[in-house]
Design goal:
By secondary structure, the protein is mostly helical. Helices cover 52% and strands 0% of the residues. It is built from 3 helices and no strands. The protein starts with 7 loop residues before the first helix and ends in a 23-residue tail after the last helix.
Amino acid sequence: MSFPIPDFEALRQRYLQAVVNQMPEAAVGDDSDHHVRASGIAAAVESLHQHVAWLSRQVFASSADNEYLEQLASERALTRKPAAVAAGSVTISGVATT
């Protein structure tokens, strides 16, 4: 089961809701100090979520970027094979308009 990553707006709303829960009289409108702080924190937390998601893709060879794919391969004493030209013929069959 994957972990749902909250977006910027959801993170900001969670922060503002926490403020209201602790201080019901707090101003949390678009021009309030709490809203500005919530926006900054939400941006930082969203960035961290995205970085962790990127890191988790680097763990698996099927989704790793080239740099990390080569590192994963070197840990298993594997090296890249050079590209090779393909030769031969291909037969394709099917039904028209499908």
